[in-house]
Request: fold
Amino acid sequence: MLLLANLFWGLSFPTIKAMTLAFERLAPGCGTWFITAMSVMPRMLMAAGVLLIFQARDLASTTAAELRQGVIMGLFAGCGMLLQNDGLQFTAASTSAFLTQFYAILIPVYLAVRSRRNPGARVWVCCLLVMAGSAILGRFDWHALRLGRGELETLASSLFFMGQILTLEAPQFRENRPERITLVLFATEALIFLALSAATAPSAAALALPWRSAPLLTFNALLTVFCTLGAFLLMNTWQPKITATEAGLIYCVEPIFGSAMALVLPAWFSRMAGIDYANETLAWPLLVGGGLITAANILLQLAPRPKAVGVQQA
Reply:
Protein backbone atom coordinates (compact mmCIF):
# COMPACT_ATOMS: atom_id res chain seq x y z
CA MET A 1 0.00 0.00 0.00
CA LEU A 2 2.87 2.40 0.71
CA LEU A 3 4.40 1.57 -2.66
CA LEU A 4 1.05 2.48 -4.23
CA ALA A 5 1.15 5.78 -2.30
CA ASN A 6 4.63 6.37 -3.75
CA LEU A 7 3.25 5.70 -7.23
CA PHE A 8 0.62 8.40 -6.68
CA TRP A 9 3.20 10.84 -5.31
CA GLY A 10 5.43 10.09 -8.29
CA LEU A 11 2.68 11.48 -10.50
CA SER A 12 3.02 14.81 -8.71
CA PHE A 13 6.53 15.52 -10.08
CA PRO A 14 5.64 16.00 -13.78
CA THR A 15 2.17 17.31 -12.92
CA ILE A 16 3.38 20.10 -10.63
CA LYS A 17 6.16 20.98 -13.09
CA ALA A 18 3.60 21.28 -15.91
CA MET A 19 1.21 23.25 -13.71
CA THR A 20 3.99 25.67 -12.78
CA LEU A 21 4.81 26.25 -16.46
CA ALA A 22 1.12 26.75 -17.25
CA PHE A 23 0.76 29.20 -14.39
CA GLU A 24 3.77 31.20 -15.59
CA ARG A 25 2.23 31.36 -19.07
CA LEU A 26 -1.18 32.47 -17.80
CA ALA A 27 0.11 34.91 -15.19
CA PRO A 28 3.59 36.11 -16.17
CA GLY A 29 5.50 37.94 -13.48
CA CYS A 30 4.05 36.05 -10.51
CA GLY A 31 6.60 35.50 -7.75
CA THR A 32 7.95 32.08 -6.84
CA TRP A 33 6.32 32.14 -3.40
CA PHE A 34 2.91 32.71 -4.98
CA ILE A 35 3.34 29.94 -7.56
CA THR A 36 4.57 27.58 -4.82
CA ALA A 37 1.51 28.32 -2.68
CA MET A 38 -0.89 27.96 -5.61
CA SER A 39 0.60 24.58 -6.53
CA VAL A 40 -0.51 23.22 -3.15
CA MET A 41 -3.48 25.25 -1.88
CA PRO A 42 -6.19 24.25 -4.43
CA ARG A 43 -5.66 20.50 -4.10
CA MET A 44 -5.54 20.64 -0.30
CA LEU A 45 -8.70 22.73 -0.24
CA MET A 46 -10.52 20.36 -2.61
CA ALA A 47 -9.29 17.24 -0.79
CA ALA A 48 -10.43 18.64 2.55
CA GLY A 49 -13.82 19.46 1.02
CA VAL A 50 -14.26 15.91 -0.31
CA LEU A 51 -13.45 14.33 3.05
CA LEU A 52 -15.64 16.86 4.85
CA ILE A 53 -18.63 15.81 2.73
CA PHE A 54 -18.13 12.13 3.57
CA GLN A 55 -17.47 12.75 7.26
CA ALA A 56 -19.93 15.58 7.94
CA ARG A 57 -22.44 13.46 9.88
CA ASP A 58 -19.77 12.09 12.20
CA LEU A 59 -17.61 15.19 12.50
CA ALA A 60 -18.67 15.91 16.08
CA SER A 61 -17.04 12.67 17.20
CA THR A 62 -13.56 13.97 16.33
CA THR A 63 -11.36 13.48 19.37
CA ALA A 64 -8.80 15.88 20.79
CA ALA A 65 -6.05 13.38 19.94
CA GLU A 66 -7.16 13.26 16.29
CA LEU A 67 -7.21 17.04 16.07
CA ARG A 68 -3.79 17.27 17.67
CA GLN A 69 -2.19 14.64 15.45
CA GLY A 70 -3.75 16.03 12.27
CA VAL A 71 -2.65 19.60 13.02
CA ILE A 72 0.89 18.54 13.93
CA MET A 73 1.21 16.44 10.78
CA GLY A 74 -0.27 19.26 8.69
CA LEU A 75 2.23 21.75 10.09
CA PHE A 76 5.14 19.38 9.47
CA ALA A 77 3.99 18.54 5.92
CA GLY A 78 3.13 22.15 5.08
CA CYS A 79 6.44 23.54 6.30
CA GLY A 80 8.33 20.74 4.56
CA MET A 81 6.61 21.35 1.22
CA LEU A 82 7.07 25.11 1.52
CA LEU A 83 10.80 24.89 2.24
CA GLN A 84 11.36 22.20 -0.38
CA ASN A 85 9.64 24.18 -3.13
CA ASP A 86 11.32 27.46 -2.20
CA GLY A 87 14.72 25.80 -1.87
CA LEU A 88 14.34 24.39 -5.36
CA GLN A 89 14.49 27.97 -6.68
CA PHE A 90 18.04 28.32 -5.35
CA THR A 91 19.65 24.95 -5.97
CA ALA A 92 19.85 22.27 -8.65
CA ALA A 93 16.99 19.78 -8.93
CA SER A 94 19.43 16.89 -8.48
CA THR A 95 20.73 18.39 -5.23
CA SER A 96 17.18 18.94 -3.98
CA ALA A 97 16.16 15.36 -4.82
CA PHE A 98 19.18 13.97 -2.98
CA LEU A 99 18.96 16.15 0.13
CA THR A 100 15.19 15.61 0.48
CA GLN A 101 15.73 11.86 0.89
CA PHE A 102 18.08 12.54 3.81
CA TYR A 103 15.29 11.63 6.23
CA ALA A 104 15.92 7.98 5.31
CA ILE A 105 19.17 8.33 7.29
CA LEU A 106 17.87 10.76 9.90
CA ILE A 107 15.02 8.51 11.08
CA PRO A 108 17.12 5.46 12.12
CA VAL A 109 19.77 7.77 13.60
CA TYR A 110 17.14 9.62 15.65
CA LEU A 111 15.50 6.39 16.82
CA ALA A 112 18.85 4.80 17.66
CA VAL A 113 19.81 7.79 19.80
CA ARG A 114 16.40 7.99 21.45
CA SER A 115 16.17 4.30 22.28
CA ARG A 116 19.93 3.82 22.74
CA ARG A 117 19.74 0.75 20.54
CA ASN A 118 21.52 0.00 17.28
CA PRO A 119 18.94 -0.93 14.59
CA GLY A 120 21.42 -3.39 13.10
CA ALA A 121 23.74 -3.68 10.11
CA ARG A 122 20.90 -4.51 7.70
CA VAL A 123 19.19 -1.16 8.31
CA TRP A 124 22.42 0.81 7.89
CA VAL A 125 23.27 -1.02 4.67
CA CYS A 126 19.77 -0.27 3.35
CA CYS A 127 20.19 3.41 4.26
CA LEU A 128 23.50 3.59 2.37
CA LEU A 129 21.95 1.89 -0.67
CA VAL A 130 19.05 4.36 -0.64
CA MET A 131 21.30 7.40 -0.38
CA ALA A 132 23.59 6.10 -3.15
CA GLY A 133 20.57 5.35 -5.32
CA SER A 134 19.09 8.80 -4.69
CA ALA A 135 22.41 10.46 -5.57
CA ILE A 136 22.67 8.52 -8.85
CA LEU A 137 18.98 8.94 -9.69
CA GLY A 138 19.20 12.71 -9.21
CA ARG A 139 22.59 12.97 -10.97
CA PHE A 140 23.95 14.53 -7.79
CA ASP A 141 27.27 16.38 -8.23
CA TRP A 142 29.39 16.55 -5.08
CA HIS A 143 31.57 19.28 -6.60
CA ALA A 144 28.55 21.55 -7.06
CA LEU A 145 27.32 21.14 -3.47
CA ARG A 146 27.40 24.22 -1.29
CA LEU A 147 25.38 24.99 1.81
CA GLY A 148 23.57 28.04 0.54
CA ARG A 149 19.93 29.04 0.99
CA GLY A 150 18.57 26.32 -1.29
CA GLU A 151 20.56 23.50 0.29
CA LEU A 152 19.80 24.60 3.85
CA GLU A 153 16.08 24.94 3.12
CA THR A 154 16.00 21.49 1.51
CA LEU A 155 17.75 19.89 4.50
CA ALA A 156 15.28 21.66 6.80
CA SER A 157 12.38 20.32 4.72
CA SER A 158 13.73 16.80 5.20
CA LEU A 159 13.60 17.33 8.97
CA PHE A 160 9.94 18.37 8.72
CA PHE A 161 9.09 15.32 6.58
CA MET A 162 10.80 13.15 9.20
CA GLY A 163 8.62 14.80 11.86
CA GLN A 164 5.51 13.98 9.83
CA ILE A 165 6.52 10.30 9.55
CA LEU A 166 7.33 9.99 13.25
CA THR A 167 4.14 11.78 14.35
CA LEU A 168 2.02 9.37 12.31
CA GLU A 169 3.25 6.36 14.26
CA ALA A 170 3.47 7.95 17.72
CA PRO A 171 2.04 5.48 20.29
CA GLN A 172 -0.29 8.04 21.89
CA PHE A 173 -2.12 8.41 18.57
CA ARG A 174 -2.51 4.70 17.85
CA GLU A 175 -6.29 4.68 18.26
CA ASN A 176 -6.90 7.64 15.95
CA ARG A 177 -8.92 7.13 12.76
CA PRO A 178 -6.76 7.65 9.65
CA GLU A 179 -9.56 9.26 7.65
CA ARG A 180 -10.17 11.82 10.42
CA ILE A 181 -6.54 12.82 10.91
CA THR A 182 -6.21 13.08 7.13
CA LEU A 183 -9.09 15.57 7.03
CA VAL A 184 -7.48 17.69 9.75
CA LEU A 185 -4.11 17.47 7.96
CA PHE A 186 -5.62 18.68 4.67
CA ALA A 187 -7.49 21.51 6.39
CA THR A 188 -4.31 22.63 8.17
CA GLU A 189 -2.29 22.68 4.96
CA ALA A 190 -5.09 24.40 3.07
CA LEU A 191 -5.14 27.21 5.63
CA ILE A 192 -1.34 27.60 5.54
CA PHE A 193 -1.15 27.87 1.77
CA LEU A 194 -4.35 29.89 1.48
CA ALA A 195 -2.83 32.52 3.75
CA LEU A 196 0.44 32.44 1.79
CA SER A 197 -1.43 32.72 -1.53
CA ALA A 198 -3.40 35.74 -0.33
CA ALA A 199 -0.28 37.41 1.06
CA THR A 200 1.77 36.97 -2.13
CA ALA A 201 -0.93 37.31 -4.81
CA PRO A 202 -0.19 40.05 -7.37
CA SER A 203 -3.94 40.48 -7.94
CA ALA A 204 -7.33 38.96 -7.17
CA ALA A 205 -7.49 37.66 -10.74
CA ALA A 206 -4.35 35.57 -10.13
CA LEU A 207 -6.05 33.89 -7.17
CA ALA A 208 -8.96 32.89 -9.41
CA LEU A 209 -6.77 31.36 -12.13
CA PRO A 210 -6.81 27.73 -10.86
CA TRP A 211 -10.62 27.76 -10.88
CA ARG A 212 -11.19 29.20 -14.36
CA SER A 213 -8.38 27.65 -16.41
CA ALA A 214 -9.15 24.22 -17.89
CA PRO A 215 -5.51 23.02 -17.85
CA LEU A 216 -4.99 24.14 -14.25
CA LEU A 217 -8.28 22.51 -13.22
CA THR A 218 -7.14 19.26 -14.86
CA PHE A 219 -3.76 19.34 -13.11
CA ASN A 220 -5.37 20.09 -9.75
CA ALA A 221 -7.91 17.30 -10.25
CA LEU A 222 -5.09 14.79 -10.86
CA LEU A 223 -3.18 16.06 -7.82
CA THR A 224 -6.28 16.02 -5.62
CA VAL A 225 -7.52 12.52 -6.50
CA PHE A 226 -4.24 10.64 -6.71
CA CYS A 227 -1.43 12.62 -5.02
CA THR A 228 -3.48 14.01 -2.14
CA LEU A 229 -6.57 11.93 -1.32
CA GLY A 230 -5.16 8.63 -2.55
CA ALA A 231 -1.59 8.96 -1.33
CA PHE A 232 -2.24 10.50 2.09
CA LEU A 233 -5.11 8.15 2.96
CA LEU A 234 -2.89 5.19 2.08
CA MET A 235 0.00 6.62 4.07
CA ASN A 236 -2.03 7.46 7.16
CA THR A 237 -3.80 4.08 7.12
CA TRP A 238 -0.89 1.73 6.44
CA GLN A 239 2.31 3.39 7.66
CA PRO A 240 1.50 2.83 11.37
CA LYS A 241 1.57 -0.93 10.70
CA ILE A 242 5.36 -0.86 10.08
CA THR A 243 8.31 0.94 11.65
CA ALA A 244 9.23 4.52 10.84
CA THR A 245 12.63 3.37 9.57
CA GLU A 246 11.05 0.95 7.11
CA ALA A 247 8.54 3.58 5.99
CA GLY A 248 11.29 6.16 5.44
CA LEU A 249 13.18 3.79 3.15
CA ILE A 250 10.04 2.80 1.24
CA TYR A 251 9.19 6.48 0.62
CA CYS A 252 12.51 6.84 -1.23
CA VAL A 253 10.93 4.84 -4.08
CA GLU A 254 8.90 7.96 -4.93
CA PRO A 255 11.50 9.57 -7.24
CA ILE A 256 11.75 6.32 -9.23
CA PHE A 257 8.06 6.53 -10.10
CA GLY A 258 8.39 10.26 -10.72
CA SER A 259 11.30 9.76 -13.12
CA ALA A 260 9.45 6.96 -14.95
CA MET A 261 6.34 9.11 -15.42
CA ALA A 262 8.46 12.00 -16.65
CA LEU A 263 9.39 9.79 -19.60
CA VAL A 264 5.86 9.98 -21.07
CA LEU A 265 3.60 12.55 -19.39
CA PRO A 266 5.28 15.92 -20.16
CA ALA A 267 4.54 15.77 -23.90
CA TRP A 268 0.87 15.00 -23.23
CA PHE A 269 0.67 17.80 -20.66
CA SER A 270 2.31 20.19 -23.14
CA ARG A 271 -0.30 19.51 -25.81
CA MET A 272 -3.11 19.94 -23.31
CA ALA A 273 -1.86 23.15 -21.67
CA GLY A 274 0.03 24.80 -24.52
CA ILE A 275 3.39 24.73 -22.75
CA ASP A 276 6.89 23.62 -23.71
CA TYR A 277 7.70 20.64 -21.48
CA ALA A 278 9.60 17.80 -23.16
CA ASN A 279 9.62 14.16 -22.10
CA GLU A 280 12.71 13.03 -20.28
CA THR A 281 14.76 10.21 -21.78
CA LEU A 282 15.55 6.81 -20.30
CA ALA A 283 19.16 6.82 -19.09
CA TRP A 284 21.42 4.77 -16.86
CA PRO A 285 20.83 6.86 -13.66
CA LEU A 286 17.17 5.78 -13.57
CA LEU A 287 18.10 2.11 -13.96
CA VAL A 288 21.09 2.07 -11.59
CA GLY A 289 19.77 4.52 -8.98
CA GLY A 290 16.31 2.97 -9.03
CA GLY A 291 17.87 -0.47 -8.80
CA LEU A 292 19.82 0.43 -5.65
CA ILE A 293 16.74 1.91 -3.94
CA THR A 294 14.68 -1.14 -4.91
CA ALA A 295 17.43 -3.47 -3.65
CA ALA A 296 17.44 -1.66 -0.31
CA ASN A 297 13.71 -2.16 0.14
CA ILE A 298 13.91 -5.83 -0.88
CA LEU A 299 16.78 -6.39 1.56
CA LEU A 300 14.77 -4.75 4.34
CA GLN A 301 11.73 -6.89 3.56
CA LEU A 302 13.85 -10.07 3.75
CA ALA A 303 14.52 -9.41 7.43
CA PRO A 304 12.73 -11.80 9.84
CA ARG A 305 9.31 -10.39 10.66
CA PRO A 306 8.49 -9.67 14.32
CA LYS A 307 5.91 -11.90 15.94
CA ALA A 308 3.91 -9.06 17.43
CA VAL A 309 1.42 -7.32 15.15
CA GLY A 310 1.31 -3.53 15.06
CA VAL A 311 3.84 -0.76 15.44
CA GLN A 312 7.28 -2.05 16.38
CA GLN A 313 8.49 1.24 17.80
CA ALA A 314 10.66 1.46 20.88
Notes: The first helix runs from residue 2 to 26. The CA atoms of residues 168 and 176 lie 10 Å apart.
